[in-house]
Amino acid sequence: MTTQEIVQKLWSLCDVLRDDGVTYHQYVTELTYILFLKMAKETGAEKNIPEGYRWDNLLSKQGVELKRFYQDLLKHLGEEGKGRIKEIYANYPDIETQIIVASVRNPIHVIEAAMLGAEIVTIPPAIIEQMVKHPLTDKGIAQFLEDAKKIGTKR
């Protein structure tokens, strides 16, 4: 992936965040913190970051666990970090964050969002309709009603 493609992808993700009410200042700050960890790994400067709070540690988490770990990482580096690391993360605001999923395009995305522990999911009405009006749902209801009638007639 070229630098230009990375920049374009980041800005498209920022558009999603902005559309969900996250301010420019918030997402640029968060991106800066995350990119710093990634660049420390890429440039060999990761030795300056305490073990357990590095890029690979962040990548090993998912969903709610990722959110909690990320908040703990920022707080730890701001309070316990050494030198410039502490300076960079010291001003991290203690703000409540939520896992937000946007741009849901199909019912599988809804399931994945739930598995990630999303607290907010923007689901278009057409996707909700697909989830409710699935042919197997209708078949299952019909089978249930048929079985219920059989049980009811035998008694």
Uncertain parts: none
Global morphology:
elongated
What is the typical, i.e. mean, pLDDT?
81
Number of DSSP helices? Answer: 8
Count of individual beta strands: 2
State the helicity in percent bands.
55-70%
User: Describe the biggest sheet?
Assistant: 2 strands, parallel
Beta strand %: under 5%
Distance between the termini: 68 Å
List the helices and strands and how they pair.
Blueprint: H1 3-19, H2 24-43, H3 55-59, H4 63-80, H5 83-89, E1 100-101, H6 107-116, E2 120-121, H7 125-132, H8 135-154
Parallel strand pairs: 1-2
Walk me through the structure.
The chain has 155 residues and is an all-alpha fold. It has 2 domains: 3-98, Ferritin (Up-down Bundle); 101-154, no CATH class. 68% of the residues lie in helices and 3% in strands. Strands 1-2 form a two-stranded parallel ribbon. Helix 4 crosses helix 5 (83-89). The mean pLDDT is 81.
Brief descriptors of the model:
Ferritin; mainly alpha; two-stranded parallel ribbon; 155 residues
What's this entry about, in short?
This protein has 155 residues and is mainly alpha-helical. Helix content is 68%, strand content 3%. The chain folds into two domains: 3-98, Up-down Bundle (Ferritin), CATH 1.20.1260.30; 101-154, no CATH class.
